[in-house]
Amino acid sequence: MSESYSLYNQTVMDHFLNPRNLGDIKDADGVGEVGAAACGDIMKISLKIEDGRIKDARFKTFGCGSAIASSSMATELIKGRTIEEAMNFSNREVINALGGLPPVKIHCSVLAEEALKAALEDYLKKHPDKARAVQAASSTPPAPASPA
Amino acid sequence: MRHVYLDHQASTPVLPEVFEAMRPYFTEAFGNPSSLHQHGLRARDALAAARRQIAAFIGAESPEEIYFTSDGQESANLAIKGVAYANQRKGNHLVVSATEHPSVLQSVEFLEKQGFTCTRVKVDGQGLVNPADVAAALTDQTILVAVHHANHDIGAIQPIAEIARLTNAAGVPFYVDADASAGWLPINVREMGASLLSFSPHRFYGPKGVGVLYRHKRARLVSILHGGMQEGGRRAGVENVPAIVGAGVAAEIAARELPSRMAHTARLQRRLWEGIRQRVPCVRLNGPDLGPLRLPNNLNLSAEFIEGEGQLLLCDMNGIAVASGSSCVSKSLKISHVLEAIGLDHALAQGNLILTLGRDNTEEEMDYVVETYATKVVARLRAMSPMWDDYERGVIDSVIAPRGREQASSVLPSRASGPAS
Fold it and tell me: What single-letter DSSP state applies at residue B359?
């Protein structure tokens, strides 16, 4: 075969084949793991948080190509955001940044959002003072962050 | 990049001899077989020759017992619905195995909405039907029993002759879906005791767009497609003459080459499985062991801690074409119903990979696949998997190779014996 065909678009394939931020963070400030192997996806996101901002984000994923690409993209997008901004993160951003996902794969991006929020909640549980600040700020939602 | 095609259960290339035989029927011999002039009569002759070739291929008594459809799935629809409708005054009960192809299972579901009832006979952990379970399912209302010859996912070969003895004694028609086995196992409808049997020539080097249904003359069958009187009035629609010609030639070649195809693929199957088993920790074979109970060209694996679609994609990136029964691969987002029926752990079903061999694969290709699969597929995906990490740190155990019985101690990191973090 001289031509090559692709199941996903180039951006998704790139993030699947060359995942960004793969791995774990030693002494992570927050770790979230969601999904189940029986359902076909597990995503784990680890965060390093300094001065209320996400300094570093890493992922590990058990799942299909779009699950790996979604977690790779999600970690790229959230680096540098404040906790408040990250709490408003939506799977839509992952889909848009990936240039679209097939309809049956939208849940992969949802899982990435859930893993990120689980990691943030883990952090806020350990830092009740930050949790109260986020609670107060959430009554007036901040403007959406510009992509990194 | 090199290409290794290991998805012969999905489709096969048309053999050059088959293609050459088909060629004139697209252009010069284009006639409609129902026409009464020279053009029509020539096409009609070609259909008759193909019918004889197919009848000889499966040991049918007469070419008149052969019906051409558009695909093996259409043949399955015709067999199930056509027999059910033809016999609905006699009864309304069908018996099928739990691991039939969706074309059988969904035809049955369609009939259930119309008042028919169905017993789905379970299979064992290897995917085999117990004939005693079929016997127990028969009632005085049973009008059809359907059990496939070999399974399309896990290659399990069913005890067809034994089941046929039961159905014949009960006077119930017996339909055998031979889609996965035709061209890869010997088929003789009389020895098997099948009243109906179907297959797709594109799975053994014939063209797509043609399916076969064998029907013993005593099995009643009504058409589910209405219109012209093609195929003895049992399948309306102008015949796909070039494809039918190709089907006949592919069947003739398959009959001739069958012993060598079986021996060749069985040898490669063993080399591939032994290689993977030695190189990849925590991997299992689903379905019967290699040997008389398994198709010679099928391997169905589960690699633990990783998912099937990712494996498929990375194989494809390395030129290796395979299939998977994981839910991420299916459009319905469900794991293969066959893996579910054999009771496979759902996480292992998600790590499923299906490799089906063909006549043109080589030993050297198997070695390439083993090496690539171990290093560029499994190792890479496991490096991304939080489960593999947990396994290495001793947080979770392997279902396939629990630590107490682990053979390859090299896969155990030294930390594993220490406390889980």
Answer: T
Q: To the nearest 10°, the Cα dihedral for B401, B407, B412, B417?
A: 90
CA distance B11 to B14: 9
Return the CATH number at A64: 3.90.1010.10
Q: Does B384 touch chain A (CB under 8 A)?
A: yes
| Domain that residue A82 falls in | 10-138
Give CA–CA dist B223/B227, Å, rounded. Answer: 10
| Structure-block tokens of residue B318 | 């390395």
- Pick out chain B residues at pLDDT < 70: 404-421
The ipTM is 0.90
CA distance B409 to chain A (A): 24
Which H or E run contains A10?
helix A10-17
For range A57-62, the mean pLDDT: 98
Q: Is residue A65 part of a domain?
A: yes
Question: Could you tell me which chain B residue has the CA closest to the CA of A71?
Answer: B384
- Test B309 with A65 for CB contact under 8 angstroms: yes
Identify whether A108 is a catalytic site residue: yes
Q: What is the 3-state secondary structure of chain A?
A: CCCCCCCCCHHHHHHHHCCCCECCCCCCCEEEEEEEHHHCEEEEEEEEEECCEEEEEEEEEECCHHHHHHHHHHHHHHCCCEHHHHHCCCHHHHHHHCCCCCHHHHHHHHHHHHHHHHHHHHHHHHCHHHHHHHHHHHCCCCCCCCCC
- Tell me the two tokens of residue B74: 């259409």
Q: What is the mean pLDDT of residues A124-134?
A: 89
Are B153 and B92 in contact by the 8 Å Cβ rule? The answer is: no
**DSSP state string for B324-360:** --STTTSTTS---HHHHHTT--HHHHHTEEEEE--TT
Asked if the Cβ–Cβ distance from B386 to A22 is below 8 Å, we say no
pTM of the predicted model, to two decimals? Answer: 0.92
Please report the domains of chain B, with CATH numbers, ordered by start residue: 15-254 (3.40.640.10), 258-388 (3.90.1150.10)
Instruction: For residue A141, name the pLDDT band (cuts at 50, 70, 90).
Output: low
Q: Residue A25: inside a domain, yes or no?
A: yes
A44 CB neighbours in chain B (<8 A) are 386
A53 domain-assigned: yes
- Report residue A132's pLDDT band, with 50, 70 and 90 as the boundaries: confident
Instruction: State the Cα–Cα distance between residues B18 and B387, nearest whole angstrom.
Output: 49
Residue A148 lies in a domain: no
> What CA–CA distance (Å, rounded) separates A34 from B112?
39
Q: Residue B29 and residue B46: Cα distance in Å, rounded?
A: 10
Nearest to A75, CA basis, from A122, A119, A42, A13: A119
pLDDT at position A2, please? 62
Let me know if A64 is a catalytic residue: no
CA distance A37 to chain B (A): 5
Among candidates A105, A120, A101, A138, which has minimal Cα distance to A57? Answer: A120
Give the total number of structural domains in chain A.
Answer: 1
Whole-number pLDDT of residue B409: 42
